[in-house]
Amino acid sequence: MKKHIKIILFIILSLAQLAFPAQMIMSRENVLNKGQVFKFRIKPIDPVDNFRGNYLSIYFSDNRVPVSSNDNYSLNQTVYATVENDIDGFAKFTGVSSQIPEHRNYIKTKILYFDYETRAGEESKTTKLVPRAVYIKIPFERYYMAENKAKPAEEAYNKSLSERKEVYITVKIHNGDTVVENLYIDGEKIEDYLRHD
Length: 197
Hints:
The protein is α+β, with helices and mostly antiparallel strands. 27% of the residues lie in helices and 39% in strands. The protein has three helices and twelve strands, in the order αβββββββββαβββα. A five-stranded antiparallel β-sheet has the order 4-8-7-5-6, with no helix packed on it. β2 and β3 form a beta hairpin.
């Protein structure tokens, strides 16, 4: 009898261990199938040692989001940042909300810090600081690659950024979830770019 209980417990434990990675895979596939593609510009940053094992650290050109001076946000607060394409076809953050936006593309993120402006106070000769924008954490800051391509990819990535070539990543977004698709240099996937660079 005890043996049967042990077997049942073993099966339950095994299924529980498999459930979490299976859910992650299904969530990723759902975003890839249903998500909308956005292109995010990347910026260079020092030091230039961007590869950490098998992923490339990505730094974004713009994580600043305008807010109304009447909004009442706090540091490290969880917010939902809406994403739209600009006239050049690149993603930009257009607003943040403490509530999940309806019928819009958004990411779930946190507020890193504020950008303030000085305004006249209610009494004469006084001033006050009011927030005009927040800087948000970008939840997709890694691009994974095969380790044998890491070094040439790092060199091509840094060289392209220093030469001001167009470097960006594509990200699929669906209901606040995100999946990084590809990294592009001058319109080519980095894997293809490395074949002739």
